[in-house]
Amino acid sequence: MPKRIVKRRRKFISRWRANFFAGLAIILPIAISIGVFVWLFGTVAKFTNTLLFFIPEEMTRADGGSGNVHWWWSCVAFAWAATLVGIVGRLARYYVGKKFIQTAERIMLAIPILNTIYGAVKQINEAFASDKAPAFEQVVMVEFPRKGAWSVGFLTSSNHPEVSDKTGQKLNSIFVPTTPNPTSGFLCMVTEEEFVKLDMSVADGIKYIMSLGAVAPQYPPLPDLHQTGADPDIVHEEEDHDDEFDEEEDDKGELPK
User: Fold this and answer.
1) How far, CA to CA in Å, does 246 sit from each of 82, 240, 250, 252?
2) Which overall architecture, per CATH, does domain 138-210 show?
3) Could you tell me the end-to-end alpha-carbon distance of the chain, in angstroms, rounded to an integer?
4) Exposed (0-12), middle (13-18) or buried (19+): which is 209, by Cβ within 10 Å?
5) Predicted model pTM
6) Which of 92, 108, 109, 123 lies 20 to 30 Å from 199 when distance is taken between CA atoms?
């Protein structure tokens, strides 16, 4: 086989491979996002579909009422659930609504086993949904699980009176999440000298963990253009112009073969 044909074939294969991985990098995040959304919607719909109890199943389900719930009825149930949650939140602002919620909580806490689950879930919800302070104060690095091995974590609290009194040290609680699922992890109690504070935001820290460390945030962080008074469009245009200039310089620097 002539060398020219072999070179063309190799060039075609290399280009096709580059195009394939470039397309995969674009399609894969979209496909994963859609898959997660469909799974999440299906999981939530298993609970919200029960709100359609007053509608005949022949209307809401396929195969004359023996099949699965039609997706549009699941959307209606989800919207109905969101409306009910909004109504409960609205009533919670008034005296009657507060008394009703307190009575419901007393009933939940009086039931064995269920009271433990409800109390724990309520405390976690209050910790993460409270307006007083964010659950994660700052992204940090801590030597975990051994000396010399650093892990990314979140500073959750620096106020532990009992722990500090018993140990004689001011300890900080660091949550070290697992990857790629940051909902579970380890709680470390360390002194301020045993962890390093990072400049990245909490959102960037979560993305960094969920991406297995592949999506690293910008460092040093870009200045807030709105605070500095600079026009973001002008800055981006200058950056694009600099990139085009660099590409032209690279093209000029290539020697002809």
Assistant:
1) 52, 10, 6, 10
2) Roll (2.30)
3) 24
4) buried
5) 0.50
6) 123
